[in-house]
Each structure stands twice: as C-alpha cells, then as structure tokens.
Design a protein that fits this description.
- The structure holds two protein chains of two kinds.
- By secondary structure, chain A is mainly α.
- Chain A is about 80% helix and about 0% strand.
- Chain A has one domain.
- Chain A contains eleven helices and no strands.
- The longest helix of chain A is centred in the first third of the chain and has 39 residues.
- Chain A is globular.
- The relative contact order of chain A is 0.13.
- In chain B, a hairpin with a 2-residue loop joins strand 12 and strand 13.
- Chain B is α/β, with parallel strands linked by helices.
- Chain B starts with a strand and ends with a helix.
- The chains are: A mainly alpha, B alpha/beta.
- At the A-B interface, helix 1 and helix 5 of A face helix 2 and helix 3 of B.
- Bound molecules: adenosine-5'-triphosphate and magnesium ion.
- The site of adenosine-5'-triphosphate has 16 residues of chain B, from strand 2 and helix 1.
Chain lengths: ~270, ~325
C-alpha cells in the first residue's frame, strides 16, 4: 500500500516531469520560431518581393477594374478588394513558406533539427509559427496601406483581422509544409503550388462578390478555406460580410484542424535526410 | 555503450552496409575508417536514427534505435560530414537554437554556450553571420554545436575536414580532453590515418559495408609485416658477395623478407631500431641506409585496396564535398 506521503511525492514528481517537458517543448518551439524570424528579418528581399504583388493588385487592378465597376455593392472597388488582397498576401506567403523546408533540406539544416530530440509535431508547429509571423508582418503593412486609402479601423476590427489572419495563415502554412515535406526540388514545388495558390486566390471571392456565381463555381468557392477568411474580413473591415463572423471562423477552424492534422502526419512520414 | 547487431542497409540494389555487427564500450574513442562510399556516414546516420536500417538493429546508450529514437537522440551529439548550420544566423544564434532544441535549462544555457564557443576559439566572431565564416571556422562552430548539450555519445563525421594543421592539433587535444573530463564516448570517421592513430582507442576498417579489421592502432600495425629497411651499396660492390650475405641474412629469425635489385637491398624485419646494427654487421660497403615503421596508411591500402576503384562519382565524392566545404 502506498502511504499518503509516497503518493504525494509521486504526484509532485509527475507534475515536475510534465512542467519540465512543457518547458522543453516551449523552448523548442521558441528555437524553431526564432530561427525563422531571424531569417525573415535579415532577408528583407523576401518581404519586399512578397508585399509587392499585393500592392500591385490593390492599386493597378483596384483602380483599373474599379473604373469599369463590376460590382453592385456600391462601395469603391479598391476598398471592396482590400480584404481580398490581405488574404491574397497571406495565401501566397503561407503556401510558399513551405518551400523553405526544401531549402533547409538542401542545405542540411533540416538534418541538424531532425537529429535533435524535438518531435516531428514540434518541428511542424515551430515552422508554422514562423510562417504565421511572416504573414502577420505583411498584414500589418497592408493595414497601414488600407488606412492610407481611406479605411477606418477600430481596435475591435484590428484584433478580429489579426485573428482571421492567424487562422488563415496557420491553415495555409500547413498546406505549404505538407507539400514541402514530400517534394524534393524547388522547381517541383513551384509547379505544384501554382496549381494550388492561384485557385485558392481566384476562387475566394477576393476580386468579385460570390453571392450569385454559377453553380460549379459556387461549389468550388465553398470548398476553399480562403473564401471564409475573405468574407470574415470583408465583414470586419467593410461591414459587408455574407456570413456572420462566428460562422466564418467556425468553418475556418474546421479547415485549420483538418489541414493541420494532415501537415503533422506528413511531417511524421517525412524522410529525415 | 553502442551495440550494433547485424545491420544491413540497402539502396535499391546497392548494399551500403552488409550485415554489420560491432560493439563500442563506454568512454572509448572509436575510429571508423575506409574508402569513399564504404558506408561510414550511412552507419552514423543509422545510429543517429536519421535513417532506418533495412534489417538489424542497434542499441545506443541503452536505447534501441528502432523503439526509442527520441531517447537516443537526446543522448547523442552529431557533427555531420557536410555543414549543416544556418548561414544567415550568427554563430551564437546557431548554438542557441540548438541549446533550446535540446532543452538545456535556462540557468546554465548561456554559460554553456560561451563555454563551447570558447573551446573552439570562436568567441570573438560569435556575432558574425555564419556566411562570413571561413570553411574551418564553420567546421569548428558545428563541433561546438554538437557538444553544447553534453552528449553521452558524440558522432564526428570527419571532424577535422578542412581544418588547418594548428586547428587540427587543437581539435585532437580537445577530443582527448573531452574523453577525460566529460565522460563521453566518441565515434569518429576520418581519412587521416595519423589522426586515427593518435586519437582512437580502437579502429575499425570498413569496406563495401563490411568490417575488414577492428583493433587498437598498435595491434593493427603489428599485423603488418614489420619495419622496412632499405640499404644501398657502393657502386663498386662485389655483387656475388652481397648475394651470399643476403642468403645468410634471410635465415635470421627477425628477418621476414629480403630482396635485392638495382643495388638496393630491401629487408622487412621486426624491430628495426634494435636489429639494424646486427644487419650492418653482416654487410660491407654500405653507402646509405633508411628505414620506415609501418603506418596505418599502409594498412589502409592493404585492407581497403585502391579507394578510387569505386564509383566515387556517385553523389559527391570526398573531394567534391571538400570543395563544397571550402566554398561555404
Ligand atoms: N541516399 C542515398 N541513396 C542512394 N545511395 C546512397 C545514399 N546515401 C548513400 N548511398 C550510397 O551508400 C554507400 C555508402 O555511402 P556513405 O556516405 O556511407 O560512404 P562513406 O563511407 O561515408 O564515404 P565518404 O568517405 O566518401 O564520406 C555509397 O555507395 C553511396 O553511394
Ligand atoms: Mg561519409
């Protein structure tokens, strides 16, 4: 029979082990994130390149197509596509972030992570956190641009935007990393990913309203996680959402869950070298 | 400490490791030698749980590499043959990332990081990005990184590749100190026989994925046919006298072998230091004498054959990887 004392010691040991493991796990995530963050900060050309395309769309397409006014929403077209452009920047950055794992493998850095005690799940989540940070920095820049072109923000809409951005980028970074886990060459990655990235963008309602699309297009947009992020953002920023914020977030979280699990599984299966 | 049982690894129809079994005891410095493509790196990758053997298993520090890879990984440090640090980060940051990955407690993390940086002499350059390092500095950084979590077993895949002679000397001293002070078992591969001779308690020659010899350097050298003495005679020496003297010499019990041509006499003997005077007492008109102790190089050539026989162009031979290193 165990005495009270023994049981207490056992408990304390167990709690100690758990907190020790949590500490360690947290440190590992921090390490993986820190590395991605430092690289992001030092390689500024990556940031410039990835912020350039959304701005091009916002200003060229926004003003150009805006003059033909394809929308019947009444709002200025540039403002109408602004939430879509935010999602676009997240889509591109997050999915392409998956290619960095291919770089890591090429330069053998991945090997040094794989030989550490960090589990595959930890490596996956750490990488994803890195991708989310990159997206968030871009979103911040775009929000400043949005303010300049005349969008009004309040603390609530900004925090809701951040939440949406984080969820969407987690989901899509998972997709990118899933591809990166089994594709060996950068060229292959670019090829496959352009079959993913452009449909995600065009079929998200970023550029046109989706309430009266032909049936097949409607189905495709409904299956696209980005659709819900665009809708939620449009609701938050412009007050023009179709679904309620809660509905959009729930659907997004469902995608996040499924694609996140897929990402973890693909990392578990990935070859170490 | 490490016990390898019947490990086989095949890539398609290429057998990189062929039913290999081996035991390494605690605190041993164990050298893996063999020509390019012998399977040394493959063996290290298997022990480090990066690849799975096609059959067989190994136990590292009490944990089976197949059942408990995570525990194995916590107790080992690996310095890979090719550089694997991130060159956008600084040296310090690279080590810090690793210290965190291995869960070194905050209390002694910084201290340990500066300790290992100091050890490899990179303290003054620790805040430079790794891409600004020379090839040898980068090598030293990787060694520091492999040590930061005080592993019980350290794998060093060609640790002194690309180091200058003085850094290499430091590395040797350091490896010796490590074994004495930190209680670590070391498995290293090298192509420098001198290094293996100096550092290793035991050496294992691998060729085509099979072990061809395992023993201490001294024992291995004994298996070679003794010291080689070369003697040249005056030009005007009487050939037939020489030949008859050689007959007599080859009957002595410390002489293995004697051959004569072109005015050079080549004798292999036990213990040349002691026996040269005796040999000279048989011979007149000696003009020149030299002798050589056997080195592991001779053994390497004997057991490994000519390394260039292999299809070395398959995925980066030694020189190619060396060049890659240099470029850094
Ligand atoms: N991923 C791989 N796919 C196919 N063959 C491989 C792979 N990795 C190694 N090999 C083959 O396995 C064999 C052993 O390679 P290994 O890298 O272990 O040699 P090594 O002893 O480390 O040589 P070196 O001295 O050149 O470093 C070689 O014939 C090599 O071509
Ligand atoms: Mg090798």
């Amino acid at each position: 029979m165990m005495t009270m004392m023994q049981r207490e010691v056992l408990w304390r040991d167990m709690l100690g082990t758990i907190s020790h493991n949590l500490n360690r796990e947290f440190g590992q995530l921090y390490a993986l994130w820190l590395r991605e963050f430092k690289v992001f900060v030092r390689e500024r050309s990556r940031l410039v390149a990835s912020i350039f395309t959304p701005l091009l769309w916002l200003f060229v397409m926004g003003s150009g197509l805006g003059s033909t006014n394809p929308t019947n929403t009444g709002a200025n077209y540039q403002l109408f596509i602004f939430p879509g452009i935010i999602c676009m920047s997240i889509i591109f950055t997050s999915v392409f972030f998956g290619s960095y794992i291919i770089w890591d493998r090429k330069f053998d850095f991945l090997k040094s992570v794989m030989v550490s005690p960090a589990t595959r799940t930890t490596v996956f989540v750490g990488k994803t956190l890195g991708g989310m940070t990159n997206s968030l920095v871009q979103v911040a820049i775009l929000l400043v641009v949005g303010y300049i072109i005349g969008i009004h923000f309040d603390p609530l809409s900004i925090s809701q935007t951040v939440v949406i951005a984080l969820i969407l980028s987690f989901t899509l970074t998972s997709v990118g990393l899933t591809f990166g886990s089994f594709i060996e060459s950068l060229e292959g990655f670019q090829l496959i990913v352009s079959f993913v990235v452009f449909p995600l963008f065009f079929l998200s309602g970023a550029l046109f309203p989706i309430n009266n699309l032909p049936g097949w297009l409607n189905i495709l947009t409904q299956l696209n996680p980005a659709t819900y992020a665009v809708d939620a953002l449009r609701g938050v920023i412009l007050g023009q959402g179709i679904n309620s914020f809660q509905t959009d977030i729930m659907v997004l979280l469902f995608f996040t869950f499924v694609l996140g699990i897929l990402g973890v599984l693909s990392f578990r299966k990935m070859k170490a070298i | 400490m490490i016990s390898i049982k019947n490990v086989t690894k095949t890539y398609g129809n290429l057998t990189a490791l062929d039913n290999l079994s081996l035991d390494v005891s605690e605190n041993e410095v164990f050298g893996l030698l063999g020509p390019n493509g012998a399977g040394k790196t493959t063996l290290i990758h298997i022990l480090a749980t990066l690849i799975k053997p096609s059959s067989g298993y190994a136990v590292v520090n009490g944990n089976n590499i197949l059942d408990d890879p995570c525990k194995v990984r916590s107790s080992i440090g690996v310095v890979f043959q090719a550089p694997s640090s991130d060159d956008i980060l600084t040296g310090y940051e690279n080590i810090k990332v690793h210290a965190l990955l291995y869960g070194i407690p905050k209390e002694w993390r910084e201290k340990r990081i500066s300790e290992v940086l100091d050890l490899v002499g990179l303290t003054s350059r620790k805040d430079d990005q790794v891409k600004k390092y020379s090839g040898g500095m980068r090598r030293r950084l990787e060694i520091a990184r492999g040590l930061v979590h005080k592993p019980r077993v350290l794998f060093l895949d060609e640790p002194t590749l690309g180091l200058d002679p003085s850094s290499r000397d430091n590395m040797w001293q350091y490896i010796r100190k490590l074994v004495e002070e930190e209680n670590v078992t070391i498995i290293l591969t090298t192509h420098y026989m001198e290094e293996a001779d100096q550092l290793c308690d035991r050496i294992c020659f691998i060729n085509n994925g099979r072990i061809t010899a395992v023993d201490s350097p001294a024992k291995l050298k004994e298996t070679l046919s003794g010291d080689t003495i070369r003697i040249r005679f005056e030009d005007n020496v009487n050939q037939s006298t020489v030949l008859s003297k050689i007959e007599e010499l080859s009957l002595l019990d410390f002489v293995h072998n004697a051959s004569y041509n072109d005015n050079w006499l080549v004798i292999t003997v036990n213990n040349a230091n002691k026996n040269i005077p005796k040999i000279l007492s048989y011979l007149d008109n000696v003009n020149w004498i030299e002798y050589k102790k056997p080195t592991l190089n001779d053994l390497f050539l004997q057991v490994a054959g000519n390394p260039m026989d292999d299809d070395d162009d398959a995925e980066g031979g030694f020189m190619e990887r060396y060049a890659r290193y240099d470029k850094s």
